[in-house]
């Protein structure tokens, strides 16, 4: 975040203008310093990555998931990488295309025709038997790791944070949005992130519209649980019930550690 540099420049400018002008602007500076960090604060983002990894991979070591790949039987083909890019939903194709633009001739480039062909289905045609092994090999390449980071941010993280800030919610609320987009995407179907948010709007208002933040988050999580239950593969709602709702009940709207939660019966802690 660039705020510290802005504050330094402002103080320097004020000093040049004259001490008589310092008092007013410095109040704003102190207020900005006290404002809670958004989920895009590096420390908060690291927490978000660990929370998602606990639900997606039963581990807080999210960086170990670059190499992860399997078909979990949810109709989306292969699920892989740090946030579960899927061969059947297009985001895996986008990732491999990005990687190939940056590093032509990489070990996954030869699968691009097959990834285009299976997009929208659970088919492995043209991917088996070599794709999983080649994915794990590619995951040792820092260029592929960076491509995963960048696609995660472009498609999932950044849109969630933008919408959360527009709705006037803090780091916890922004995380509930991020986790929802990771699982449901943001397409046009009834269980997508935007549809979940619209369902919540029928019950409550976000702070940007004069609503109470906790009331809004509960309405959003209610809508999220409904969406999860529409799909057998996502019908276990513990990532909401024993993770996100725990933080909401404690009114930990800034997602400040220590954090204790459970997913699928496993306990986790961030100190």
Automatic annotation (TrEMBL):
User: Which gene specifies this protein's sequence?
Assistant: csnA
Protein keywords: Glycosidase, Hydrolase, Secreted, Signal
> What is the reaction catalyzed?
Endohydrolysis of beta-(1->4)-linkages between D-glucosamine residues in a partly acetylated chitosan
Source species, please?
Streptomyces siamensis
Q: Which family does it belong to?
A: Belongs to the glycosyl hydrolase 46 family.
Q: Which domain of life is it from?
A: Bacteria
Q: What does this protein do?
A: Aids in the defense against invading fungal pathogens by degrading their cell wall chitosan.
Localization per record: Secreted
Residues spanning the signal sequence: 1-34
Q: Which Pfam families match?
A: Glyco_hydro_46
EC number(s) recorded for this UniProt protein: 3.2.1.132
Quote the protein name from its UniProt record: Chitosanase
The reply on keyword Hydrolase is yes
């Amino acid at each position: 975040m660039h705020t510290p540099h802005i504050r330094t420049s402002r103080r320097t400018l004020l000093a040049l203008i004259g001490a008589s002008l310092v008092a007013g602007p410095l109040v704003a500076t102190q207020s900005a310093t006290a404002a809670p960090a958004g989920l895009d604060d590096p420390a908060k983002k690291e927490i978000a990555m660990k929370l998602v990894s606990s639900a997606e991979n039963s581990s807080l070591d999210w960086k170990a998931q670059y190499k992860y790949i399997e078909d979990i039987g949810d109709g989306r083909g292969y699920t892989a990488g740090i946030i579960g890019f899927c061969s059947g939903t297009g985001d895996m194709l986008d990732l491999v295309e990005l990687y190939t633009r940056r590093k032509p001739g990489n070990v996954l480039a030869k699968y691009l025709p097959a990834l285009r062909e299976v997009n929208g289905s659970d088919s492995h045609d043209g991917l088996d038997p070599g794709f999983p092994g080649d994915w794990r090999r590619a995951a040792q390449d820092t260029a592929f790791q960076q491509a995963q980071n960048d696609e995660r941010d472009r498609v999932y993280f950044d849109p969630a944070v933008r919408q959360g800030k527009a709705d006037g919610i803090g780091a916890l609320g922004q995380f509930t949005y991020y986790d929802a987009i990771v699982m449901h995407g943001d397409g046009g179907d009834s269980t997508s992130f935007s549809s979940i948010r619209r369902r919540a709007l029928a019950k409550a208002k976000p702070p940007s519209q004069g609503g109470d933040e906790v009331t809004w988050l509960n309405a959003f999580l209610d809508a999220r649980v409904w969406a999860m239950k529409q799909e057998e593969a996502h019908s276990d709602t513990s990532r909401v019930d024993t993770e996100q709702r725990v933080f909401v009940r404690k009114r930990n709207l800034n997602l400040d550690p220590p954090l204790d939660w459970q997913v699928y019966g496993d306990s986790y802690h961030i100190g």
